[in-house]
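Final report, closing paragraph on structural work. Over the funding period we assembled a curated collection of sequence-structure pairs, and we close with a single example.
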Amino acid sequence: ESFQPETKTLGIAISLSGDGTTLAVADMSFARVYNLRNGIWEKVGQDVLGDSTRDVDLSEDGRTLAVRFGSTSYTRVYSLDENDEKWVQLGDGIETDAPFGFESIDLSADGKTIAIADPKNDDVASNAGSVTVHRLDSSSGNWIRLGPGVGSPNLLQGDSEDDQFGSCVSISADGNRIAAGARESVDEPGLVRVLDWTGEEWIRVSLDIIGNEGEGAGFYCSMAGSRMALGFPAFNTYTGYARVMELEELKST
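Its predicted structure, as stored:
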């Protein structure tokens, strides 16, 4: 079934729950959730309003919704109340300094850990990029940042100008592993970095996965279970290709 737009940008961001029965869809000014019941997509809760929506993500069960707003660079996470009637904000909004239109988010399966990518972040150098990871604290009810990673600059940042670290980001089901890519500038190889959370810091699972010159290895990455898929869209003059890797094999690299 299709969803008729109320504005010209409905569908700018979408996400499905693990079983495919809950859909989050956004336009530039709101995010909306539907649930498939008896073959009909029915709206769940109220529209989540915001300024310049850039990305949405659902937890595995579809009861936690994260929304990334672009013009002010903040992320809010909501939980569906027990009556399935209202989206209630969890903790404070998470603010970062990503420029408009260049950020993405990824939730863990339970919706209590979120990775936020800012590939245009300038903390290290112009467009070096960064990723931050936040976990909902059960005591305070607020989002606590996990990290940073070890090293200088830390492992969750690009090393130099135009690395664009955070061009892709993917978080594991338990929220303790992330993959993040640095697409780098035109004609560069790009890289994907896989990191584990030790409880105190982010550490490398393996050496960074480096593409060949001009492949754009850091454009797209997605983890599921023990596997990770990578996209190399710039390969062979933008013919491109995809690659699937076993994450456990990386540990011995």
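Helices lie at 235-238, 247-250. The chain has a mean pLDDT of 88. We thank the funder for supporting this effort.
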